[in-house]
Design a protein that fits this description.
This protein is of the alpha+beta class. It is built from seven helices and twelve strands. The chain folds into two domains: about 120 residues, 3-Layer(aba) Sandwich (Aminopeptidase); about 160 residues, 3-Layer(aba) Sandwich (Aminopeptidase). It has a twelve-stranded mixed beta sheet, sandwiched between helices. Helix 1 runs antiparallel to helix 2.
Length: about 300
């Protein structure tokens, strides 16, 4: 029988948690400085987590960490960690831990349960919808540009229309992923853009691109340099609908990689929202690894 005991002292768990995160991020190809910054961010988030020791017949078999927070006026739960040691894996402890977390969070008023996976979880969370993936790839040399495609800086005259389009696309991504309602997504979009690019096109550390081919605009790009040590974050690499299916998606990625190297960074990182399988397949084929995958499920879980 799998049992759970809340720990008063979670130091041993934290050491094990950080060790596993470091290994996962390193295997994914992130630079050492990037890994350490991501670990710092992880440490800052675990202060309110409740950590339980998972045991079976008196033997510790793993750990679980959970928390419930107020998310835009509604309670949401999160599984911060769910780990069963390899020696005890595959004996039902993982499913018992998932079920315990769902019950623990629901009892505290959570109507949604999130988890951020950094390691493959098999079928354990198949019932949880994919909300997004953080992907990254080391860029060691300038990519080969696609013939006929050029990237140039966005002009002040082009910026307002781009901003309106980007904010609308961001809202659509959030809603399609099931993360927020349309009204909540609009508020988040307004807040995020105001925070990220308060000076618009002149905001330092950002690159805004226009992609052109066959004499016309085919897409745009927005990248933030130094997002993490040695990391450029691609907020948007967009190809217009009428120009898709022509290989321009790879051209946009090449432009992003060129901008990454030009800024002195060595890794291009971005988020792809759940429900966008076409983009996920493109990024996989281009060598962009999943660093983290966010999933969620409504609580209480449906009997089906």
């Amino acid at each position: 029988m799998t049992e759970f005991s809340i720990l008063d002292d979670s130091m041993e768990w934290q050491k094990d948690f950080e060790r596993r995160l470091r290994t996962s991020y390193t295997v994914a190809g992130l630079a050492a400085a990037t890994v350490e910054r991501m670990l710092e961010d992880a440490r800052a988030s675990i202060g309110d987590w409740t950590v339980a020791e998972i045991t079976a017949a008196g033997t510790r078999v793993g750990y679980e960490a959970v928390v419930v927070t107020d998310d835009n006026g509604a309670f949401a739960g999160r599984i911060g960690d769910l780990h069963v040691d390899a020696l005890h894996a595959g004996r039902g402890h993982e499913q018992a831990a998932r079920d315990w977390a769902e019950a623990w969070c629901a009892q505290r008023g959570a109507r949604r349960l999130d988890i951020r996976l950094t390691e493959p979880a098999g079928e354990l969370f198949n019932g949880y919808g994919v909300r997004g993936q953080l992907r990254a790839r080391r860029v060691s040399s300038p990519p080969e540009p696609l013939d006929g495609v050029t990237a140039r800086p966005m002009t002040p005259a082009e910026y307002p229309e781009w901003l309106t389009s980007e904010k609308a696309a961001y809202v659509g991504d959030i809603v399609r992923a099931g993360a927020l309602s349309p009204e909540e997504a609009v508020r988040k979009s307004d807040q995020d853009f105001a925070k990220l690019i308060p000076e618009g096109l002149a905001t330092p550390g950002n690159t805004f691109l226009v992609l052109e081919a066959v004499g016309e605009q085919i897409g745009t790009g927005w990248l933030k340099h130094g997002h993490l040590p040695e990391v450029t974050y691609g907020y948007s690499l967009y190809i217009q609908d009428q120009h898709r299916g022509k290989g321009y998606g790879r051209a946009a990625m090449a432009a992003g990689e060129q901008a990454t190297l030009a800024a002195g960074d060595s890794t291009l990182m971005f988020t792809v929202w759940g429900g966008n399988e076409v983009a996920m397949n493109l990024y996989t084929s281009a060598g962009y690894q999943v660093i983290e995958e966010s999933r969620s499920i409504d609580l209480p879980r449906s009997a089906a």
